[in-house]
Amino acid sequence: MIDQDVFLKMVEKHSRAEKVSLDDVLFGEGLDIGSMRFTEMIMDIEEEYDLDIDVSTLNASIKTVGQLLSHLKTLGL
Fold it and tell me: What's this model's pTM, rounded to 2 decimal places?
């Protein structure tokens, strides 16, 4: 199971924010995580939890850090 604190640290690493919360918006005016950083973040999550995430399942409805975490949990993390 994915640990929320570890997950938030991973998001912080790939964002320009010092502290990240579940309510933070991932893209644009939020954390401003670009597509390259987002892909690197997903790769870090895959490595940390030894799994393969199909990026195509991460659709445009995922806007916040919390929504991404919830989606990853539905994948069995």
Answer: 0.87
